[in-house]
Amino acid sequence: MHVTVVGSGFVGQTTAMRLVQGGIAEVVLIDIVEGLPQGLALDLRESARVVGFEPHVIGTNDYADTAGSDVVVITAGFPRQPGMSRMDLLGKNAGIVRSVVEQVAPGSPEAIIIIVTNPLDEMTALAAEVSAFPKERVVGMAGVLDSARLRTFIAEELGVSPLVVQAMTLGSHGDAMVPLPRHATVAGQPLVDLVDEATLERLYARTRDAGAEIVALLKKGSAYYAPSASITNMIEAIAHDTGELLPVCAWCTGQYGIDEVYVGVPVHLSREGVAQIVELDLNEAELAALRAAAEGIRAKCADLAQL
Ligand SMILES: NC(=O)c1ccc[n+]([C@@H]2O[C@H](COP(=O)([O-])OP(=O)(O)OC[C@H]3O[C@@H](n4cnc5c(N)ncnc54)[C@H](O)[C@@H]3O)[C@@H](O)[C@H]2O)c1
Quick check: is 173 catalytic? Predict the structure, then answer.
């Protein structure tokens, strides 16, 4: 697999490290800042003999070096600062994502684009429009991260390993996140049998605000270990056709009664991108929340078109 990571900031560089160290892909790291991706790639290659991996990573400022990529991950753009919502980044990051897609897409016309830049759902829709790629080859990373955070909080609440916790969130990356309590399990037991309603609500609220919790602690910039792990998870699913069901920001064409909009839904990824959107058994309240999230994203995308 040839993967281009656009943006060599915290999320981009940790993603490159995970991919190359894990032997998952050969990586081209690119950034607008001269020297930054080259320096990071050199540093990574110099760690290869110590850690024990093949040093297949280069850094560049030239999009010609990204040609023929199988996957393009876009992390270029501003992160949040304390007190900011993801939506506060809309205007600033739209210009960056537009220019990146215009430069990277022509050289890698068969690539799957994974958007990471916030606000996630709207930037994914923008990248699909600008690239004019088939929509199944343009997706956004958020649900894997939100679900990982939820699984962590459930595990810490119950004093178990996150490895035995299954839980998924759908909807948008923000306030309209849709948790699915009826589908969550801990070591095979339904979560709803293990915690009361108030605890569930507390865990979901913390998950919804988990990005802001880290922004407030760091005071400068936002999370990157769990985000880069989540991107890597998606790329492994693509590379190995694992069939793993992942919550992904994907283009809906009638699934869940949602049409012609990007929103977080359960997806099987493959070398073709979105192989299938899986329709879980949702109750009326869950369906209504997912549809409301989709309509919120549609409205924001309309705002974006006016910018
Ligand atoms: N989807 C998610 O779940 C998720 C999680 C974490 C972060 N994010 C988002 O990812 C983005 C990156 O976060 P970060 O912590 O890595 O930020 P960062 O500031 O550390 O890095 C951003 C990088 O983008 C580069 N950049 C800016 N404009 C560019 C351009 N036109 N072309 C190429 N590179 C350009 C900058 O030089 C910088 O190196 C932010 O928008 C953040 O909100 C999303």
Answer: yes
